[in-house]
Amino acid sequence: MRSNDRKALHAMESKELRKLLDEAASALVTLQIEHVQRKLKNTQSMYTKRKEIARIQTVLQEKDTQEQWKKEGKKGV
Q1: What is the pTM of this model?
Q2: Most buried among 14, 28, 41, 74, using CB within 10 Å?
Q3: For the chain, how many structural domains are there in total?
Q4: How many whole angstroms separate alpha carbon 22 and alpha carbon 24?
Q5: Domain-embedded: residue 36
Q6: pLDDT by residue (tens digit) across 6-57?
Q7: What single DSSP character describes residue 76?
């Protein structure tokens, strides 16, 4: 994932990120099934998909934390 893609993740809203996370998770399941069936040629794609999911989860967690701080009246970092 390029740095522009990471910046785009931060620009997205939480709903969009959750939808993207669902899509990435289902794509990972598909890759895993293909791997078990010996249809997957590029096993590196499973690794990159897991990393993509982790990045999306991280951005979601940051956004949720910021929203919680706004509710409590705390300043963000």
Answers
A1: 0.85
A2: 28
A3: 1
A4: 5
A5: yes
A6: 899 999 999 999 999 999 999 999 999 999 999 999 999 999 999 999 999 9
A7: P
